[in-house]
Amino acid sequence: IGQNSFNLTGSWSTYNVSFTTYEIYNQVHFVINSKNAVQIAKVTVLQTGPVIQVSSVAYPPQDLYSPYFNGTAIVISNVSNTLAWHGPYTSLGAGTYNVTFFLSTDNSSPDNIGVLYVTSDYGNDIIAVEMFNGAMLSNGKITMTFSLSQMTLGMQYEGYIIRWKGTLVLSNIYVNKTGV
Predict the structure, then answer these.
(1) How many angstroms separate the CA atoms of 6 and 122, rounded?
(2) Global pTM?
(3) Percent of the chain clearing pLDDT 70 (strictly above)
(4) Residue 125 contacts by C-beta under 8 Å, 6 or more apart in sequence?
(5) Which of 8, 52, 86, 131 falls 20 to 30 Å from 92 in CA-CA distance?
C-alpha cells in the first residue's frame, strides 16, 4: 500500500508511512528488503480518518484472480467444470447492492452454462447465486441483487463454468449500493 525509502544509518529512526484505503484489513505486513540486519523496536498502526463507504465501484479483470486473464479481459474458451475467476476480496458495509457482470460470447447457445456467485468470508459463505447460459448474454451483462446486514469482509465475485463451447469474455464487474 505504502512505500518509503529508508536511510538506515545505524541509529534509531522514526519512519511514517501513510496511505488511504477503501478496505478493512485483518493483518498488515511490513516487509523490509535490506542486505543488512534490521531491528524494529515498535510498530504502531493508527487510523486517522473515518471508514469510507463507497456507493459504487468497478472491478476490472486485473483486480480478479484468473488463469484466463489475457491482459485486458478474462477470456475463457471451450472449458467445462472450471472456476474461471474469483476475487477481489473486498469489504462492503450493510446495505442492498447490485453486482453487474459484463459478459460477452461468440456462442449464445443455451447449452453453454455458467454460475455466478457472490460470496463473503473469502468464498466460504454464499450470499447470492445465479445460473446463466449463452442465450442470456444478448445485452452483454447479468445483474444480481444481494443484501448485507452488517459490514462484511472477504467479498468476492466468482464465475464457475459448467460447460462452454466457444468463447466467454468477462470485461468488468460493477458493484453499486442501491439501498441501506
Answers:
(1) 34
(2) 0.73
(3) 75
(4) 119
(5) 131
